[in-house]
Amino acid sequence: METSAPVRLPDEVVVHRVGGKTLGNMRLRTSEKKLKPPGWSVLIGGLPEDAAKAMLVAFPDPILHSQIHQKAKIVASAAVGEIRGVGFDVVSDPTLRFPNHGRLVHSGGADAFTNEALEKLACVFREVTL
After folding, report:
1. Prediction pTM value
2. C-alpha–C-alpha distance, residues 130 and 121, integer Å
3. β strands within 19-110, DSSP E
4. Which of 110, 119, 108, 100 is nearest to 25 (CA)?
């Protein structure tokens, strides 16, 4: 199957990280380190409330998906240009559940997701509690 090159997202596009901007929510998990390129999930566009709702619709069982339901109470948002300003980027990475799915990445790969770099990244995100 042929894949197209990733489309560069405009700087003004806003992305959302469900679960907030704590270092614990921004560190790469083992499975995320193995992705090509390594990175973690964001939802592209819309409002923080839209991102939270999308997660709850995709994972509706509050018992089976209790961690996701808990995370959906806090959403961190930032413009792609702000993310690029601290050395990271966002690539479009649609999935069946989330056509607006993206991945926050770094040109330095998984090793670039240091605490220091993530602290700078956290500063460009605005967090809302829903």
Report:
1. 0.93
2. 22
3. 39-44, 74-79, 88-92, 101-106
4. 119
Distance CA 69, CA 118 (A): 24
Q: Which of the 8 DSSP states describes residue 130? A: -
Paired sense of beta strands 88-92 and 39-44, if any: unpaired
Contact 73, 127 (CB under 8 A): no
pLDDT tens-digit readout, 59-113: 999 999 999 999 999 999 999 999 999 999 999 999 999 999 999 999 999 999 9
74-79 vs 126-129, strand pairing mode: antiparallel
Element at 49 (helix H, strand E): helix 48-58
